What we know:
The chain is α/β, with parallel strands linked by helices. The chain folds into 2 domains: 2-89, no CATH class; 98-416, Metal-dependent hydrolases (TIM Barrel, Alpha-Beta Barrel). It contains 17 helices and 13 strands. Helix 6 (168-182) links the parallel strand 5 (151-154) and strand 6 (187-189). The two termini are 22 Å apart.
Amino acid sequence: MRRARQISDDAARRLGWSRRQFLTSSAGMATGLVALQACTDEARRAGATTTGPASTGPATTRPAMTGPGGTFTVPPTAITEPELATTTTQLPPGSLLVDVQNHVLDYELNPQAPTFGAGFPQGACEAGDPRQCFTPERWIDLVFRQSDTTMAVLSAIPAVGDANPLTIEAMERGREMAAAMCGDARVLIQGQAAPDVGPIEAALEAMSAVTAAHAVCAWKVYTHSPNGWFLDDADPQAPQVGERFLAHVEELGVPVVAVHKGLAGGAPFASPRDIGPAAVRHPHLSFLVYHSGYESGVVESEFNPGGAGVDRLVQSLADAGVGPGGNVYAELGTTWRSVMGDLDQAAHVLGKLLLAVGDDNVVWGTDSIWYGSPQDQIAALHAFEITPEFQERFGYPALTAERKAKILGLNAVRVLGIAAPIAGACPPEVQAGLRRGDPLANVAPGPVSRRDVLATFVREHPWVR
């Protein structure tokens, strides 16, 4: 942060801009990547070590690698060359970018629902009320006006009944509002399924009713909430609803299951260990594994059999014999955002997933709009490369432009059966102007002052005193 501020102050003066104008520009975005790369390089040269939970579980101290795992290909001159910064941090015009995990909260349709999402950065928006920070209007602005996203999928949250501010009706409203602004069908919606809530027969009937009334592209489930279950019914102590759910998915003709795996503090039912067996038993279904099994308390490194985090998904697929190009897709929502600031972890996560599921089965998601506009995540992936050293040491593939294009859009088009992919901005003739004219474009929501930053850290890390 100190380095980025120093660079920004100097570059803003050279350009004749205010600090705010600079920081909210593409040059400001490039500055963040340049500063992060420089600090990473200095720490590595100094022989820094990283202390934290390794992928095998217990806390360890990892020696620094002899060479970096990843790099941001951002020329230092981009800091004072706005046009170069734009090409570095934004996708080329007309690119396809399909974000398969988006969320809105619509309290106008369900005013009695409890506040959801207040703990996410976007919950601290200038509205002063978290219930007003995730509206469909804000989602459209942050995703389609302030980022390179061209298509998005609205996905359910772990809330049901009166507690749910993201109903299928809220998704339809978001889709309709985006269509009215863009003049096209660039938003898809998922159906929510909760086979562990109430009688399984009622849950299956509810799914049938959804498909009769709505055009859904997939089914979204949370196996760890509210009660806990597995897709393969392997645990006799858990509700035996997985097989009946998957069989009903096949009957309904929407053959994509988007399942939350990971990001649950190690909760057993959020483990992706059931993905491999379920995929083998249901070869005609596609399993879209949200978060790819990543856990925020795990430091990702090279694959360890029996490890934690993403290793659990890799292990499940290997044990079941599901190889690259199979019917399992690894999704990056929140996962990429969590590791993109640690270039070694970022390289390991992408490298392991590309090896496990293949070039054609890693899909882009951002969990927007929990973190505000996804453009920072897009810029980081656009500029990121796995180093030749990590390619040689671990067999990871290079992140070529072709592979990035698959991850960012082409793979989602195939798995979701999108007949007419929409590339390009919405609306193309005004999006760039809106970004330039918006004083808050590229602003990452969250605490700003040192006091607020420290208070947030203490609140979110109660074990650190």
